[in-house]
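Our platform keeps sequence and structure together, in a single record for each protein. Such a record has a labelled line for the sequence and another for the backbone structure tokens. Nothing more is needed to write down the fold, since each code stands for a local backbone conformation. For reference, a complete record is included directly beneath this paragraph:
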Amino acid sequence: MRIQFPGTRGEIDISSRDHRRHSCLLIEGRVLVDCGLDWLGNFGSPEAIVLTHAHADHVGGLKYGADCPVYATAQTWARLKSYPLSDRRVVIPMQTLAVCGLKFEAFHVEHSLIAPTVGYRVTDRSASIVYLPDVAKIPRGHRALSGASLYIGDGASIVRPLTRRRGDAVIGHASVRDQLDWCREEEVTKVAITHCRSQIVRSDFEAMDRLKVLGNQRGVDVVLAHDGMKMIVGKKRIRVGD
């Protein structure tokens, strides 16, 4: 499976040329996952767009519409009523959906009460990846992660979770350390970190060293994604390039 990170910036001001554009993922050059505000009018010509949730750094680029099908949960569509998107497809969590020859399975993750969020497990004949750019907690972690070739996770904070409770729900962002623990538990050995916020962006080299140490302690190989980075993901081998 060929993937590319057109953008890797979280909801922070631009301060690094390696993380200039809002986070999104392009799969096989055809399917774009998320389309944040700074992609407005400049997100290329994907064959389909799949959305994780309705925060502006994930959907704002579609404010003027799109010339392809757009997939989102009913909860996300409820927040995008004013967007001029004519081909709206509804994603039902825990059901497999075919998008441009790829299998997508959405699963609920805890992140926001205002903008309910899903992550995606994407599968083709060669590999299976999990994409969680914003996550505080995965209620169904085993089903989401078990057997995945690559986990792509939330780079908001390296070791300190940026989370709080609202009743029974956890909102915010899990630390990278916690996400690596999830991967260790499910024997996922390859991880890429995206949706980077200030702690990582202000010092990529120092952050990468810390991520490598945390990964090595858990038997997980970690890479820090940057804008334009490409990966070829197979069941047993992953290649990284630009």
